Amino acid sequence: MTNGFLECLKKEIHNYTSISSLVYTPINPSYQSVLDFSIRNKRFISDSTPKPLMIITPEYDYQIAPIIYFAKHNQLQIRTRSGGHDFEGRSYVSEVPFVIIDLLNFSEITVDAEQKTAWLGAGATIGMLYYNIKVKSPRLAFPGGFFPTVGVGGHFSGGGWGVLLRKYGLAADHVIDARIVDVNGRILDRNSMGEDLFWAIRGGGGASFGVILAWKVRLVEVPETVTVFTIYRDLDQNATQLVHRWQYVAPNCDEDLFLRIVSRRNISGDGRMTIRAAFNSVFLGGIDRLLAVMEEKFPELGLVRDDCIEMSWIQSILYNVGLPIDSLEPLLDRFQHDVGYYKGKSDYVRNRFP
Ligand SMILES: Cc1cc2nc3c(=O)[nH]c(=O)nc-3n(C[C@H](O)[C@H](O)[C@H](O)COP(=O)(O)OP(=O)(O)OC[C@H]3O[C@@H](n4cnc5c(N)ncnc54)[C@H](O)[C@@H]3O)c2cc1C
C-alpha cells in the first residue's frame, strides 16, 4: 500500500522530487527520529504504539491537497500534527492505517506591530510567537498557553489559555483569519470558508475540519513591567483554607491579576507526606499596585514585597516554566528535552469545592 500511495503522490504532485525528500516511510533511516521528534509523552513511544505508514513534512500549501486526495482514495486516515502536545497522541497515533502530515515546516511568523496583528504558520510554537512579538514590541503580547513548545495548530483550534486569560480570554478569541485545506483539497481563508467553519475551527478542534495552514491573530497590549510571585503553603501552613478562599478571590479580583494554584505531593521537613499548594501569579503592573490588590482581596495569603519580582511579560513566560529569564533563545527551541510518562486531563470547574 505504501508503494501505491507514493506512486499516486508522484503523479499528483507535479514536482515530486521536490517533496520526495519530505516523505518518510519505515524503511527510511530518519523515519523513527522524525516520528519521535514531536512526541511529548513517552506513553506513545513504544513498540506497541501503532505507527504511521508514512510521515509527510510538506513545505508548501499546494503539497497538501494531493496527500488528502490519495489518503481518501486508499482509505488511509490522516493525522495532522503541529506541536505534538495532544494529551492522547491523537496527532500521531491511530488504530486504523494512517499517515501523518507533520506541519513543522510551516512555522513562519510575521508580526505587524503597527496593526497589532500577526500571521503564523500552524506548525509554529507559542514560544516562537512570543519571541517574535517581543522582537517587534515589548508592549505587545498574545494570550496563549504556558509551555513554549506547544504548537499553535492544535492550541488555537482547541481554545488555548494562559496568564492573560482573565484580561483577554482564550487564544482562539484572538484569531481573526485562517487558511485551511478542506477535505476536497480547497485552500480557504475566512472569507471563502464562511463564518460557520471559521467559528468551528476556533474551539472545535482543527482536525475535525481540515488541515489548518496558518492563523492570523490580533495581539494584545501589556505593560512594560509585570510582577510575578510563587508562594508555597503546606497543609500545616493553612493550605486547605487558602485554597478554599482562593476559589472566591481568583475569578473575581482585578483582571490584571492571574493567580493559579498548582498543588502537589510533598515531603515535609520531618519526613511526612503532605500536600503543597503553590500560589503562582502574573500581575499586569508593578509591585506597589499588586500589594494593594492582594491586601484588599486576599490578605490571608500574606504576600509581602520580598515575594514579588518585577520583570517584562516575555520574562514571565520563561519564569513560569522554570527557565532562566535572562535569555529568550529557549523560546525558539521546539525540541522538548524532558519528555516523561504521564496522563493529562483538563476540565473547567463550575462549582466551588467545599
Ligand atoms: C506539556 C503541555 C503543556 C500544555 N500547556 C497548555 C497551556 O498552558 N494552555 C493550554 O490551553 N493548553 C495547554 N496544553 C494543551 C495543548 O494546548 C493542546 O494539547 C493542543 O492541542 C496542542 O497543540 P499541538 O499543536 O502542540 O498538538 P498536536 O498534538 O500537534 O495537535 C493536537 C490536536 O490538534 C490537531 N491539529 C494539530 N495541528 C493541526 C492543524 N494544523 N490542522 C488541523 N488540526 C491540527 C491534531 O490532529 C490533534 O488532534 C498543554 C499540553 C501539554 C502536553
Automatic annotation (TrEMBL):
Origin superkingdom: Eukaryota
Database matches in PROSITE patterns: FAD_PCMH
Species of origin: Sesamum angolense
UniProt protein name: Berberine bridge enzyme-like 18
Origin organism lineage: Eukaryota, Viridiplantae, Streptophyta, Embryophyta, Tracheophyta
MF terms (GO), sorted A to Z: FAD binding
Signal peptide: none
InterPro entries cross-referenced by the UniProt entry: FAD-bd_PCMH, FAD-bd_PCMH-like_sf, FAD-bd_PCMH_sub1, FAD-bd_PCMH_sub2, Oxid_FAD_bind_N
Domain called FAD-binding PCMH-type: residue spans: 48-222
